[in-house]
Amino acid sequence: MKITVVGTGYVGLVTGTCLSEIGHTVTCIDIDQDKVNKMRSGQSPIYEPGLDELMKKNIQEKRLFFTTNHKEGFSGVEVIYIAVGTPEKEDGSANLSFVEQVGKDIAANVERDVIVVTKSTVPVGTNDWIKKVIERNLVHNVKVDIVSNPEFLREGAAIYDSFNGDRIVVGADNEDAANRIEEINKPFGIPVFKTDIRSAEMIKYAANAFLATKISFINEISNICEKVGANVEAVANGMGQDNRIGSQFLNAGIGYGGSCFPKDTKALVQIAGNVEYDFELLKGVIHVNRKQQEILLNKLNERFESLEGKKVAVLGLAFKPNTDDMREAASIVITKHLIEKGANVAAYDPVAMENAKKVIDSKVHYVSNTTEALKDADVALILTEWNEFKDLEIGTFEENMKQSVIFDGRNCYDPKIVENYHVEYHSMGRPSVKNSKLVNVG
Ligand code: UDX
Hints:
Blueprint: E1 2-6, H1 10-21, E2 25-29, H2 33-40, H3 51-60, E3 64-67, H4 70-74, E4 79-82, H5 97-109, E5 114-118, H6 126-137, E6 144-148, H7 158-164, E7 168-172, H8 175-185, E8 192-195, H9 197-228, H10 232-240, H11 261-274, H12 280-303, E9 311-315, H13 330-340, E10 344-348, H14 353-359, E11 365-366, H15 370-374, E12 379-382, H16 387-390, H17 394-400, E13 405-408, H18 415-418, E14 424-426, E15 433-434
Parallel strand pairs: 1-2, 1-4, 2-3, 4-5, 5-6, 7-8, 9-10, 9-12, 10-11, 12-13, 13-14
Antiparallel strand pairs: 6-7, 14-15
The structure holds uridine-5'-diphosphate-xylopyranose (UDX).
């Protein structure tokens, strides 16, 4: 099948590459010429494990192409995927101007009947609107069907998820169009759930909002655990063994970030508001998520009378491991606070430092490895649970830091193991380890 994907951001590039891997001929369109040149040589503009290799392979086998030219990209194509961004507007709603532009570009260029598939996360009703935008602007007399096909890919595991997802959601008002999209996806071997367009649009928001709810829920439980002397890890484990609850997304920490959860939760509150429904639960989820970063900072401020002149080692900047994505990363707010308090911040992240430099306070000092960050530090903060940090010998903190005080925002270490070292260890929702041999110079 000849397919065109518009937008080579995270979703578009992964979708296009994976569709080419299962045998389709895919052209990806982007407006950025430099980016297109880079991608033509098999270089992904984003950090995603396995993506470069897959791109190179399919470019070589002549199934994956990149262009800035809409005419070329839409020529003779049977199916067009829209995968452009829907950034958050100031009021929390989704900005659909890129999607609208793609609709107009499609209308101006298609010369045969097409199915337009929306991958971008768009508010309920948007697909009907896109169809109208295209039909209103059509240059040739062709039939356009529209299908909502939301993505559920996790950054850092997007290739794996493309081939091992739990379901593919196909929302269409036309059975033929739905069947053709099902057919395209067949080689992935993933069950296809067919429904109407508006339900498909809603599934994406509801799924992300529910996962965000799980995280905020366990974070609140974690805060209570700290006060009543329970251990949130044990609680999550015991809860998760109930199949109705499930064990995933119950890791307490400093909250969710990234390109989806913060944006989609706010958009869903907005979507509900538009139909005069007050989504109180989701508002609480968003509020709790913001509070979670403050909780770590409050603990730090309680522990140290002042952070003025103190060296703070920050381990991890990306919003989660295995990505260089800094969008809505907890590290942004946390480092800003540390700088305001007069701390000397030495930060290290295995891959996100270049992106971090664009969004984080310029007074943060970047170092090239963990040991350098920890060297003579007064306190270490773990903000992203990279394996590199999880695998650290606890002795490394002891050997390098001036005083080994650790605030672990991602529960990377087992307190039972930490107890064997001369460190003071505070994590989220678990009893702190305070080794009495530590000199308290805070
Ligand atoms: C998410 C969804 O998983 C995906 O289906 C959707 O399409 C896009 O958004 P992603 O943003 O890549 O994917 O990250 P995910 O792995 O889901 O984690 C999101 C955030 O939640 C991260 O900041 C992570 O650290 C946090 N998280 C996740 C927790 O704090 N606790 C958990 O138990 C799980």
